[in-house]
Amino acid sequence: MTKLNRETVIAEALDLLDEVGLESVSTRRLARRLGVEQPSLYWHFGKKEELLAAMAEAAMLPHAAAALPSPGDDWRDWFLDNHRDFRRTLLIRRDGARLHAGLLPGAADLGRIAHKMAFLIGSGLPERDAQMAMLAASRFTVGSVLEEQAEAGALRDAELPRIDHDSAFEAGLAMIADGLAQRARAASD
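Predicted structure:
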């Protein structure tokens, strides 16, 4: 048996998530997988919600490791790339968007968010519009991935046309960025 520590529990929980999906992740099942009694998990996580939050945070590490924007970067290119990377990260894990949905940012995330907002504002975008565009694009991304992952797990009617999720995501994201650019132009006139 592997030494049971917080990181091991999170890693095994994420592997379990990939195998069985979010609905079937339980502390009982995880304990069995780890070869321990269920109460052993409560040494590291007082309740299942704490475990799920830790899993979501760990699942987002690839996006959290992405380079932050620099003052010379084009805001639109960065905005699009940031949300593409967010989408890719959510798609890494089965039910990644469901796991992430409703998660509040942690302390480290708040610093990254502040940097991103300062970059957008420093690029000449009105603060409120930049905030709302980031929120809208983030929620659009999570919603897009929720639908994409739900479709992947469901049987589809052969009569319905398949959705090209990549194209649909790119089109919606471009509309948000175009709207932000239009509002920025109007604010500068």
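Summary: The chain has nine helices and no strands.
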